[in-house]
Amino acid sequence: MKLLTEQSSLDFVAQLSPEHNGSLNMSWALGTDCCSWEGINCRGENTVRDISLPSKGLAGSISPSLSNLAKLLHLNLSHNSLSGGLPMDSLLFSSIAVLDVSFNHLDGPLQELQSSNPSLSLPL
């Protein structure tokens, strides 16, 4: 059940993928294990830990459903055409240690994310 929840949380990335990006769309087929999808790495109990989709031609906005990926540590969506703001409410309470959304068309305020380790702050 946990994997199904994580897979549905990743649906927002599939919606960002352009239809002409065949390799990404083919690997993100419905009914397949999301841990086998391009750019998704799982560890332990089939828990999504890393999303790495730089330079994939992704467009649209980053969904707050990202917060459902409770064990996500690394998120790299750099060098795409993402727009809008970051879902800060989702990111503030997440486990993300590395966030790279550089070279997109994002706007809005950025604020420092708190680390799960109180003695470590995450710089912008």
Structure description:
Keywords: Leucine-rich repeat, Repeat. This is Leucine-rich repeat-containing N-terminal plant-type domain-containing protein. It is found in: Cell membrane. It is a single-pass type I membrane protein. The protein is of the alpha/beta class and 124 residues long. It has a single domain, classed as Leucine-rich repeat, LRR (right-handed beta-alpha superhelix) (Alpha-Beta Horseshoe), CATH 3.80.10. The chain has a four-stranded mixed β-sheet with strand order 1-2-4-6, with helices on one face. The termini are far apart.
From the structure above, extract its key features.
124 residues, four-stranded mixed β-sheet, LRR_N_plant-typ, repeat, At_inactive_RLKs, LRR_dom_sf, 9 strands, alpha/beta, Leucine-rich repeat, LRR (right-handed beta-alpha superhelix), three-stranded parallel β-sheet, globular, 4 helices
Provide a concise account of the structure shown.
The chain is of the alpha/beta class and 124 residues long.
Strand content: 15-25%
How many distinct beta strands? 9
Shape: globular
Secondary-structure element order, as H and E?
HHHEEEEEHEEEE
CATH architecture: Alpha-Beta Horseshoe
**Biggest β-sheet, characterized?**
4 strands, mixed
Briefly note the structural class of the backbone: alpha/beta
CATH topology: Leucine-rich repeat, LRR (right-handed beta-alpha superhelix)
* CATH C-level name: Alpha Beta
Termini, distance in Å? 35 Å
User: Spatial order of the strands in the main sheet?
Assistant: 1-2-4-6
Q: Which residues sit in consecutive blocks of at least 5 with pLDDT less than 50?
A: none
